[in-house]
Amino acid sequence: MTEVIVVGAGPTGLMLAGELRLHGVGVVVLDREPAPTPNVRALGLHVRSIEIMDQRGLLERFLQRGKQFRLGGFFAGLGTKWPDGLDTAHSYVLGIPQTVVERLLAEHAAGAGAEIRRGAEVTGLSQDDYGVTAELADGSRVQGQFLAGCDGGRSTVRKLLGIGFPGEPSRHETLLGQMEASAPADQIAAVVAEVRKTQLRFGLGPAGDGTYRVVVPADGVAEDRAVAPTLDDFRQQLRAFAGTDFGVHSPRWLSRFGDATRLAERYRAGRVFLAGDAAHIHPPTGGQGLNLGLQDAFNLGWKLAAAVAGWAPQELLDSYESERHPVAVDVLDNTRAQMELMSAGPGPQSVRRLLSDLMDIDEVNRRLISKITAIGVRYDFGDGPDLVGRRLRDVRLKHSGRLFELQHAGRGLLLDQTGGLSAGGWSDRVDHVADVSDEVDHPAVLLRPDGHVAWAGADQRDLDAQLSRWFGP
């Protein structure tokens, strides 16, 4: 019997596995596909995900394989520049294909001791007061104390639990693929630039190895989205929007995606949890999907580890849904808004022109990019200073280096600028750092393992109450 079963070896599941292994939790990852997908559906990491990698000491390996961008246009293609003054030490987007993200996370999880089983399809689930049993297609079973469904928008785990997935079906679909093109590169770039003046769901961009990543609106909504489109479908739609098919040929892979927006009715059923696309789907505008899943896993991992270790307060596992569900609601809302702004109708285009003018105001630009990059997230921890509930960005300490370097072990952290406080009986779960920073305005802050501020102040009794709330007795 393992301790946690993770279903789905995509970015969310692999991130969760790595977080659990950080705390010594036994993990097995089950994925029905025999090998990782070659499809590059996502192209980058936003600020909060970059911070997460830095908090765990993983960022350097991602930076080596990605490219940093400080470009405008991440909110519905609006805004001419990357905003100044973002509250982060990592003010950029990291361009890196999803396939590379998955490979790096798999290497990290496996290197930390997670077992990754591919070709292992879950077909049944049962649970009781002591654990969860996953039944596999080959007739075998895997038992664990908890299970996390990170198996995508068509989640088998969610369906087996009978959790509703209400929302809106796709109104528009888009073809996405990787293929070669015989047209000259300068001609492709010129035509794409012209088409994108009126059609923002269109693009051909270099994807490496002489191939292009092709994005073009589909001809209606497919009756069965599981059936991949054909190369002729791409050629037809390219000619319809650009007047040429650019001589596309030799596809590596072809797929489609829609703008359906759905949110799971609940994120937990007993000992089973949902994360990533299994809990929420939305249009890919703003590139938030992969990042939202990574951040779900970052929130859930330390809480499951605390439950396995036996010190989790009763409400800690419930806080996963109460914190992450509102974040997903906000992402669904902003992606809906972006899709409207990208519509070609006169009404949406009028609103688009108005908002485009507003994006020239620095504060508006920062506010919207803070949404896209998830650095504006604040969990509701009750009354307290505005910093409480927010993640604390990386700051420099006078003697101890960078804050994020102190969070690699995934423990809680008490940053004590007074030198007079104590983590007391929680020192096995919370590191006490007596140091100062010009960038922290409070006498002391208590950080959860995910970097969110649980408390700020100077009173030991108040601190003890919050240590008990988040780190158990």
Automatic annotation (TrEMBL):
Pfam families: FAD_binding_3, Rng_hyd_C
Top-rank taxon: Bacteria
InterPro entries, alphabetized: FAD-bd (IPR002938), FAD/NAD-bd_sf (IPR036188), RIFMO-like (IPR050641)
GO molecular function: FAD binding; oxidoreductase activity, acting on paired donors, with incorporation or reduction of molecular oxygen, NAD(P)H as one donor, and incorporation of one atom of oxygen
Domain FAD-binding, first and last residues per copy: 2-335
Keywords: FAD, Flavoprotein
Cofactor: FAD
Coiled coil regions in record: none
Name used for this protein in its record: 2-polyprenyl-6-methoxyphenol hydroxylase
The organism of origin for this protein: Paractinoplanes atraurantiacus
